[in-house]
Request: fold
Amino acid sequence: MIQTKSLTKRYGKTLAVDSLTITVEPGKVTGFLGPNGAGKSTTMRMILGLDHPTSGSAKVNGHLYQHLKRPLHEVGALLDARALSPGRTARNHLLALAATHGISKTRVEEVIELTGLRSVATRKAGSYSLGMAQRLGIAVALLGDPKTLILDEPVNGLDPEGVRWVRDLVRHLAGLGKTVFLSSHLMSEMEQTADHLIVLARGKLLADVDMAEFISQSSEIGARVRTPYATQMADWLAQPGVRIDPLGPDLIEVHGLDAAQLGDAAATQGWALHELIPLTASLEQAYLDLTNDATEYRSESFEAHVGQEA
Amino acid sequence: MSSAQFGYEQYLQAQAALRQQAMTTQYPPGYPQQPYPTVPPSLDFPPPTVSFPYHDSDDETTGKHLITTGLPPGMVAPPQAMEHTPGHIPVVDPVSDTGSAPAVVAATQVDTTPPNSAAAPQPTAPRTPRKSTVEVRNVAFFRVLRAESIKLRTLTSTWWLLAIAVILTIGMGALMGWTIKMAFENPESMGISPDMVDLFRNMEATTLATTGMQFMQLVVTILGVLYITNEYSSGSIRATLSAVPTRLVMVIAKAVNLGIAVFLTSMASLYAAAMVGWAFISGYGVDDRFTLSGLRAIAGASLANTLITLLAFAVGLLLRSTAGGIGTVLGVLLVLPIITQILPWDWATTTGEYLPGASSIWLYNFGDAAAANMWDWNQWGFLKGLWVTGAWALLPFIGGLAALKARDAGGSE
Ligand SMILES: Nc1ncnc2c1ncn2[C@@H]1O[C@H](COP(=O)(O)OP(=O)(O)O)[C@@H](O)[C@H]1O
Ligand SMILES: [Mg+2]
Reply:
């Protein structure tokens, strides 16, 4: 359980986190979403007592982090996988951290095994790929068998298999009743992982909703239909609540009816469909719409810079 | 995985219905036209009585999951549709078909391991829930002491720097011993006066040892700076402070480890230097000079090294930068003494005496004058050397601690 109250952090002129009040609950994977520079990492560093809040507070399991007697048993954190002494091996890195809590060598070997680092455990961390460093970061986070996990962009640099592994792992840990707080700047990484979403932009809280609710709020019903009967179909379907965008002589995009309804309708009329594609980009789009006004580094449209067609 | 509601029977029926419809359809030239339907459109379509022929099944011979598509026989396809080739589309089930799935994954996976890594790490699936058997104890000073000792020992530069320090010290001891031996053998050719030779005969063996002190000091100060700035440059300070949130405990544990390591290394290498140097001159009527005061000098010199190293550590703690830390320490040890010598004023000379390099010499200088002032606060001797050098180590250390507590953990620059 993580709770922040009016948590605020200012770096000079930059207001990195602006009066953030959130609760991250146990037994769930909570996704912490926001564009780059939104203040996710800063929030996590304040929760871990690394950065001092300008005002407000953050508590883990009811205590300030500085007051925890066994911090590694309360919170396992992966902040920046690259933050390793390059000359130290993974095993020694883990052994040193384990020693602070009297954690046994057996447990160190266990997390090495669990994260698939066995074959590289005696190699210097400086020679690790980002993926290996991420695994080591996760091994560190798991070392003290913590009740709460704080992972900052944990799938960054992982191969697809690794991404899936992290997803399964955090879901498994949430299933054990642990609090899992996971940040990302990509909605696609959260879709299949998170139960709850906290969306941040420019340091401000934009949304704090259950994933299911977010999906139901934002999914748009519609489909793209390619059929030789496009004209007839458009005329036939025209009615309040349905919007039809003609995209070509045989291609229409229908909003307000889902793919199943459209397919069934076409079948009743005997209209052959050559394509029937449900509109799916909705979640990513909903997230972008949500954060669009507050994005720090907005990318401009390509046309402005790449030039027009000849 | 075949749909129960849509079996082969229904498929045939659907085909027949569609064929019927297709045959009654009138296609005008160009795009096909069809009379507008009479059924009013509704958002809530009834369940279809006719569906597009679609059949999925498991192929008995290959075991593959198949989706069969195709226009019903007899249906006249509109012009564009001719591009479609009816046929079998094998579908690999990503969940159940484990036999071929890894091959697909392997082909598309982004290889992040360097080419020379023969065995890329293979993640194991999360284990089944088990009772927490991980024993985790409270963070305590002695545990942090152990952790920081592991870190000191596993820092590559520790061994390099200590090795250089030892070699320099012993080498200088040997060089000194050899030079004196030459002086005993033929003082004239070396331009050494008989007074000087007498001085050598009465010399303590440990004086041979402490010749290399200045060099050793420079090397161990680099270790002092690196031991802490390494955490900032790599960013591992964040992992360190996440495990030990009481920053004071972390820093004191580091300082104790560093102090012990430097003190013991100094003791051992200075003693070895004395022995090696002694070996050169022991045959020239020099008495056995391994007196108590000689050992005291070795211990004093080791203490001097330790305090100067802690000064360097404190500077590193304050500046959080390896280059800045080493530069500052070398400035204080090498540049400031020269400046104070050049400046013509008395106060500059006096200041020069109080610089850490100069004050630390009194910790191992037990000559006649020094011995007389040994326990005098105000005259240069052991005690004054100790408090001045100690202050040099302690004041930046306290400053570093205060800054450490007040500032953010850092490590991201
Ligand atoms: N140590 C720091 N000093 C100054 N500014 C910082 C520091 N850390 C973060 N910031 C600024 O705070 C804002 C939030 O950054 P961060 O928390 O890293 O965002 P995110 O993790 O969501 O990408 C950014 O504008 C960043 O430049
Ligand atoms: Mg970040």
User: Anything to note?
Assistant: The mean pLDDT of chain A is 88. The radius of gyration of chain A is 24 Å. The pocket of magnesium ion (ligand 2) is lined by residues A 40-41, 152 (CB under 6 Å). Chain A touches chain B through 95 residues (CB under 8 Å).
